[in-house]
């Protein structure tokens, strides 16, 4: 590993130590961590041979595997569609970016001057990529057992807080899963009515699944009306 990728300043070494404490893992090869924190803008600006994109690719796969493993084992009776929703609630870009902020990754990201000036240290995409790259680096440095321990340290509370019913606030998602699994079609939504003044409109939506299943719902936005229609059809399907 190129030693020029080591964190250089005393301040960054202190930040790196704090990051390792937060991860619960100390790198044997600290150049792997430095690479995980190297954005392509920094790499280009300093003519370095690599950035964190390859590690991000690896870390994304490691994170996906560990999440799938924990959700699969924790929800033994849930079908595939519900497991996918549970996994996505933790692995969304916004959720991972917030996790990266909690770890203080923005403070140790190596960014080009332009990227840093324009707020790159707090940009969701940069933080998400860096977190995945760090997980990839832990995997390379300490293999699967090490990254598994780090994953559990970072995500145990998130996994414990998952709702047992992932569809509770997502009737459109639940209806789509059922429609695809049982009828091999997608739900179709149509706005059939708009009423009220512009600042206080109320929408009515109709949803159909195939040729036989249909329901309507109302809401203050098109999305709310579609969700209400989906919830109404789900209730019909329970009868």
Structure description:
There is one protein chain. The protein has 239 residues and is mainly alpha-helical. It has two domains: 3-160, Ribonuclease III domain (Ribonuclease iii, N-terminal Endonuclease Domain, Chain A, Orthogonal Bundle), CATH 1.10.1520.10; 171-238, Double Stranded RNA Binding Domain, CATH 3.30.160. 62% of the residues lie in helices and 10% in strands. It contains eleven helices and three strands. Helix 4 (53-74) runs parallel beside helix 9, helix 6 (93-103) crosses helix 9 (124-160) and helix 10 (171-183) packs across helix 11 (222-238). The chain is elongated.
User: Separation of termini?
Assistant: 63 Å
Report the uncertain regions: 1-14
Name of the CATH class of the largest domain:
Mainly Alpha
> In the CATH hierarchy, what is the architecture of the largest domain at level 2?
Orthogonal Bundle
According to CATH, the fold-level topology of the largest domain is Ribonuclease iii, N-terminal Endonuclease Domain, Chain A
How many structural units, i.e. domains? 2
Largest sheet: 3 strands, antiparallel
Strands, helices and their partners?
Layout: H1 10-23, H2 30-36, H3 40-45, H4 53-74, H5 80-91, H6 93-103, H7 105-108, H8 113-117, H9 124-160, H10 171-183, E1 188-195, E2 202-209, E3 213-219, H11 222-238
Antiparallel strand pairs: 1-2, 2-3
Helix pairs in contact: 2-9, 4-5, 4-9, 6-9, 10-11
Notable features of this structure?
single chain; 239 residues; mainly alpha; Ribonuclease iii, N-terminal Endonuclease Domain, Chain A; Double Stranded RNA Binding Domain; 11 helices; 62% helix; elongated
């Amino acid at each position: 590993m190129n030693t020029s990728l080591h964190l250089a300043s005393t301040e960054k070494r202190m930040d790196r130590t704090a990051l390792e404490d937060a991860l619960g893992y100390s790198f044997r090869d600290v150049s792997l961590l430095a690479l995980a924190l190297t954005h392509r803008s920094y790499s280009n600006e300093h003519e370095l041979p690599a950035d964190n994109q390859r590690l991000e690719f690896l870390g994304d796969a490691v994170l996906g595997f560990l999440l799938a493993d924990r959700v699969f084992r924790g929800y033994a009776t849930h079908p595939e569609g519900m497991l996918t929703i549970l996994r996505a609630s933790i692995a969304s870009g916004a959720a991972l970016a917030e996790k990266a902020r909690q770890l203080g990754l923005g403070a140790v990201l190596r960014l080009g001057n332009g990227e840093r000036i324009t707020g790159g240290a707090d940009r969701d995409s940069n933080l998400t990529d860096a977190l995945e790259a760090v997980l990839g680096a832990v995997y390379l440095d300490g293999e699967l057992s090490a990254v598994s321990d780090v994953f559990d340290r970072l995500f145990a509370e998130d996994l414990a807080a998952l709702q047992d019913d992932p569809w509770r606030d997502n009737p459109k998602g639940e209806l789509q899963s059922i429609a695809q699994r049982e009828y091999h079609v997608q739900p179709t939504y149509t706005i059939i009515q708009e009423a009220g003044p512009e600042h206080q409109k109320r929408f009515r939506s109709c949803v159909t699944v195939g040729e036989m299943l249909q329901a309507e719902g109302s809401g203050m936005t098109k999305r709310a009306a579609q969700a209400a229609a989906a919830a109404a059809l789900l209730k019909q399907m329970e009868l």
